[in-house]
Design a protein that fits this description.
The chain has 341 residues and is an all-alpha fold. It is built from 15 helices and no strands. The chain has one domain. It is a multi-pass membrane protein.
Length: 341
């Protein structure tokens, strides 16, 4: 396997893209439906816990030693996440952008791009996220066009939240942090084993939290709760309501950006899986072809609204196990092993 390294900035950008990627266009509605006007409070608390996990992962990453079984577990999990993401991407694109395009064309195009990225040199998947930086800034700037239309009283009452809203809101908030375990996969490859300081993790967490928090807050302030329950992708409707001169429909413009964002997210998750496969086998091209064929075929069976909803609901539980519990267990196991040696 070829040796490769990442800089601190590359690591955090990689992590930011896979953690925002596909999920950011639907997260607001899901969290708000669960926790209502207190969604931003619940999300902030879950985000704080995510930050604590990142600090723990950074301190003890050297103990994250995967055996072959654990490597296959993570690979299967990432491929399942990609399959669900692909079905979600296709479903939303068919509704918003390509209503007459066959499903296999949309999914096939995304999978082909991912295949190209993953047969290229390591520099391609590690640097491809850079092209999204100006679009992220543009997206946030477009949201602020809605400030005059925000209804600030929608925030109230604050703090009156029931137990089931806490649980539901926290569960939906977990979706924002899918891919956390990628930090442990990439951390050993940081250039010259450089230290990642806690303040760098705090800066990353602040950026990630503000990104999601802004979209959640704007959604709460723009839509009445009763109306929001009927809107599946609220952030797109918010953008659609804004009149600008440089583009006819702002929502379609940003749907295309989200599509590009999601394609890169899919490619990066597959990159993680193929990377682990390469640590076990020298020959990997055939596997790369096979896994992309599987990922192309499987989403075609998830395209009904009910199946897709169930699959997306299960993502949070998958993240809880593969992104939090299993990594902590592996770190603890590695730490205990080091004490005996």
């Amino acid at each position: 396997m070829n040796k490769w390294t990442v800089s601190n900035k590359q690591l955090f950008l990689f992590l930011f893209i896979i953690q925002t990627g596909t999920i950011f266009i639907t997260l607001q509605t899901r969290v708000i439906k669960a926790a209502e006007q207190n969604a931003w409070i619940v999300f902030t608390i879950v985000s704080f816990l995510h930050c604590v996990l990142l600090i723990i992962f950074n301190k003890y990453y050297k103990y994250f030693q995967l055996n072959k079984f654990e490597k296959w577990l993570f690979q299967i999990y990432w491929y399942v996440v990609v399959i669900i993401f692909l079905a979600t991407i296709d479903f939303l694109l068919i509704v918003w952008v390509f209503p007459l395009t066959p499903h296999f064309i949309v999914i096939g195009l995304i999978v082909f791009i991912s295949f190209y990225v993953n047969i290229s040199k390591y520099a391609v998947p590690l640097n491809i996220s850079v092209i999204l930086i100006p679009f992220i800034i543009l997206f946030l700037g477009a949201l602020f066009l809605a400030v005059p239309d925000l209804i600030w009283t929608n925030l109230f009452p604050i703090g009156h939240i029931q137990k089931d809203q806490w649980i539901g809101g926290a569960k939906e908030s977990l979706n924002a942090f899918i891919g956390l375990e990628a930090f442990l996969i990439l951390r050993p490859f940081v250039q010259d084993k450089r230290e990642i300081k806690t303040k760098q993790i705090l800066s990353y967490q602040l950026a990630l939290t503000l990104f999601f928090l802004i979209t959640i807050m704007f959604t709460i302030l723009f839509f009445p709760l009763e109306e929001l329950k009927l809107i599946p992708v609220a952030i797109t409707f918010l953008l659609k309501s804004q009149d600008v001169t440089f583009v006819e429909r702002l929502d379609l413009f940003f749907t295309y950006i989200w599509m590009m964002w999601s394609i890169i997210t899919v490619a990066l998750f597959i990159f993680l899986g193929i990377h682990l496969y390469k640590t076990m086998h020298k020959r990997h091209f055939k596997f790369t072809v096979i896994i992309h064929l599987v990922i192309f075929i499987c989403p075609l069976f998830l395209l009904s609204r009910e199946i897709l909803k169930t699959a997306n609901d299960l993502l949070a539980y998958g993240h809880l196990f593969f992104g939090i519990l299993l990594p902590l267990f592996i770190l603890f196991k590695g730490w205990r092993k080091s004490l005996r040696e």
